[in-house]
């Protein structure tokens, strides 16, 4: 029997770096809010996936208005976000009441492919955890106050989402007290003693954070 597949889509951005009064997840990309493109990627992967959308409570009304405007009626569970990403993911996990696999994904990564989503679930079924990542393209240097030092970039990876886990593993991991070192879900799982398995993501799976990212995303969607 196949494990139940869940996705927690976390969308709590404020649009500060993208210089927008509207939260960045609601900005339009090719006529549709960024967040809807992200959700549609998961529905394309599977019509039976159970999606939990985590939004700041103040954004519920905006989201409902956008759903009406764009005739968006795909089934999902809407959950109130917290004061941090950690708290928002934890709130999303609270909506899962059975075991299975859960992919945790940034609401502003709308170009994630069905192949990457599928790979994350297949690998998490085997390894309990699967985190998308890509190799560095540029040279990197380590710096301190006075010096810089060349570092072997082949030893490093840029981490993306989805980050997919066996449900009980990540729910137990999120029972710890929040810490500033928790930059993503993998760091929470690692803190709880779990080995993090990486798999090859995609350079097109960009996170839309700045105005330039919007331009790149539009170009990639025209391909």
From TrEMBL:
To which pathway does this protein belong? Isoprenoid biosynthesis; isopentenyl diphosphate biosynthesis via DXP pathway; isopentenyl diphosphate from 1-deoxy-D-xylulose 5-phosphate: step 2/6
Keyword line: Isoprene biosynthesis, Nucleotidyltransferase, Transferase
Question: Which Gene3D superfamilies does the entry mention?
Answer: Spore Coat Polysaccharide Biosynthesis Protein SpsA, Chain A
Quote the EC number.
2.7.7.60
Question: Which residues are tagged with the site Positions MEP for the nucleophilic attack?
Answer: 153, 207
SUPFAM superfamilies tied to this protein: Nucleotide-diphospho-sugar transferases
Could you tell me the Gene Ontology terms of the biological process aspect for this record? isopentenyl diphosphate biosynthetic process, methylerythritol 4-phosphate pathway
Q: Which reaction does it catalyse?
A: 2-C-methyl-D-erythritol 4-phosphate + CTP + H(+) = 4-CDP-2-C-methyl-D-erythritol + diphosphate
Determine if DNA repair is one of this entry's keywords: no
Q: InterPro entries in the record, alphabetically? A: IspD (IPR001228), IspD/TarI (IPR034683), IspD/TarI_cytidylyltransf_bact (IPR050088), Nucleotide-diphossugar_trans (IPR029044)
- An example Pfam family from this entry, by short name, is IspD
Q: Give any GO molecular function from the UniProt entry.
A: 2-C-methyl-D-erythritol 4-phosphate cytidylyltransferase activity
Indicate the annotated site residue(s) for Transition state stabilizer: 17, 24
What's the superkingdom here?
A: Bacteria
Q: Please state which protein family the record places this protein in.
A: Belongs to the IspD/TarI cytidylyltransferase family. IspD subfamily.
Function, please?
Catalyzes the formation of 4-diphosphocytidyl-2-C-methyl-D-erythritol from CTP and 2-C-methyl-D-erythritol 4-phosphate (MEP).
This protein's name: 2-C-methyl-D-erythritol 4-phosphate cytidylyltransferase
């Amino acid at each position: 029997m196949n494990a139940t597949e869940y996705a927690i889509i976390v969308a709590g951005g404020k649009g500060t770096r993208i210089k927008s009064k509207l939260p960045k997840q609601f900005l339009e990309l090719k006529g549709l809010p960024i967040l809807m493109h992200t959700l549609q990627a998961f529905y394309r992967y599977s019509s039976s996936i159970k999606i939990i959308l985590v939004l700041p409570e103040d954004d519920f009304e905006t989201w409902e208005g956008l759903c009406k405007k764009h005739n968006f009626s795909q089934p999902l569970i809407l959950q109130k976000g917290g004061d941090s990403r950690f708290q928002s993911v934890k709130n999303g996990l609270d909506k899962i009441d059975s075991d299975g696999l859960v992919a945790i994904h940034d609401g502003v990564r709308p170009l994630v492919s069905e192949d990457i989503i599928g790979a994350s679930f297949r690998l998490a079924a085997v390894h309990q955890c699967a985190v998308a990542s890509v190799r560095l393209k540029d040279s990197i240097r380590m710096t301190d106050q006075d010096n810089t030092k060349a570092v072997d970039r082949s030893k490093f990876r840029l981490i993306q989402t989805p980050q997919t886990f066996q449900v009980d593993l990540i729910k137990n991991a999120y029972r710890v007290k929040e810490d500033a070192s928790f930059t993503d879900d993998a760091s929470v799982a690692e803190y709880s003693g779990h080995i993090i398995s990486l798999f090859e993501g995609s350079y097109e799976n960009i996170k839309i954070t700045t105005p330039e990212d919007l331009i790149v995303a539009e170009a990639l969607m025209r391909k």
